[in-house]
Design goal:
The structure is a single chain. By secondary structure, the protein is an alpha+beta fold. It has one domain (5-82). Helices cover 25% and strands 23% of the residues. It is built from 3 helices and 4 strands. It has helices at residues 41-47, 64-73, 79-82, and strands at 5-8, 15-18, 24-28, 35-40. The protein has a 4-stranded antiparallel sheet. Strand 3 (24-28) and strand 4 (35-40) form a beta hairpin. Helix 1 crosses helix 2 (64-73). The radius of gyration is 13 Å and the shape is globular. This is Zinc ribbon domain-containing protein.
Amino acid sequence: MPRSYEYVCPVCENRVTREFRVPSVVRTCENDCGFDHYIRADLLEKVESVPEEDRPDDWEELDNERRVYVALREGVITIPDLQ
């Protein structure tokens, strides 16, 4: 049986499962959030590991996609994590 990966809506955190591993999937949310990038759940878990002192001042206002970029810049997420 193939492994499944969970992806999270950047707006409402609705989750979907897919049998392929990519950083994000573009899809329409069932909760009327629109058409957006669902980000792989394990990446979002790593985002929370960005130390407080390395987070920008507007961290709370950043969407999940931008937080992934910060985590990448800070070395919490690496290129292999995105593959």
